[in-house]
Automatic annotation (TrEMBL):
Residues 139-282 form the Tetrahydrofolate dehydrogenase/cyclohydrolase NAD(P)-binding domain. The keyword Ubl conjugation does not apply. The lineage of its organism: Bacteria, Bacillati, Actinomycetota, Coriobacteriia, Coriobacteriales. NADP(+) binds at G165, R166, S167, I231. Residues 6-119 form the Tetrahydrofolate dehydrogenase/cyclohydrolase catalytic domain. The gene is folD. This is Bifunctional protein FolD. Belongs to the tetrahydrofolate dehydrogenase/cyclohydrolase family. It catalyses: (6R)-5,10-methylene-5,6,7,8-tetrahydrofolate + NADP(+) = (6R)-5,10-methenyltetrahydrofolate + NADPH; (6R)-5,10-methenyltetrahydrofolate + H2O = (6R)-10-formyltetrahydrofolate + H(+).
Amino acid sequence: MARLMRGAPVAKALVEEVAGRASALASAGVVPKLAVVRVGAREADLSYERGIEKRCAACGIELEHVLLGDRCTSAELVSAIERVGEDATVHGCLLMRPLPEGLDEAAACAAIAPEKDVDCATAASLLGVFEGRAVGFPPCTAEAVMQVLRHYGVALAGADACVVGRSLVIGRPVSMMLMGADATVTTCHSRTRDLAAHCRAADVVVVAAGHAGIFDASCAAPGQVVVDVGINWDEEAGRLVGDVDFGAVEPVVGAITPVPGGVGAVTTACLAMHVVEAAERSVGR
Ligand code: NAP
């Protein structure tokens, strides 16, 4: 039976650490603050925002909601984001994406002040991830993957890691971060010839393809660590499932994250961590 790497203990430990750092900052007169910029009121955004609200409250982070109507223009959105950038009391800026159709997402992302970019929306943050420098921040989900591996003591230096997916929000940044942790990384995608062979050969696999069950028993190897980032709705079962066929893979591998209750449970804690780190950087800590 595989070791179950649940997200909740990871998030709990992160929240404790982040709350301590936020409290130290507050004692020095700096209250970490996150601005969430939202256009319209889609349920997915509202639900994510509720999760952020709870997490920030637990960490001692102030939250400011910057709300724009469905009919706002790209110029109005850019101005609102620029105002957040100019506000010295705000340390982090999160733009709810994807934006409603018709808005210029690239322009909106580019308007975020790089030092406040807590979810890797800007080119500066991406460059920081690729160069391994503390410029901006990696995407919160990519960070969550790394925090799960760290919390459960997964050795990465010298390990063979396989990442399934090459998107800019998960696959590529996770590949870079694993490489930064001295793993030897293979990044697979939809044109990879033999996905199962690459996966089987790895000590650590991160699956972020957005296809339920793409990582099945043929991809799994004994002792392997499997992190499932996928979130898919299974119509038949009427529940969320990951990209890993949990029932078939869990008996084979050494450790595995569940879905739900795995990586997804750690994302807002990583966001909180980024906000506090941005506040620390703003005062040269
Ligand atoms: P995405 O932009 O659609 O990228 C999917 C990647 O998977 C692409 O690089 C694609 O390859 C690759 N892929 C697709 N089919 C494949 C196949 N048969 N074999 C190998 N690779 C394949 O998705 P994403 O935004 O990265 O998200 C990935 C998953 O993570 C989704 O299920 C999403 O819902 C989930 N997610 C989870 C969280 C969380 O907090 N847990 C947060 C965000 C997203 P190509 O580049 O060749 O097309």
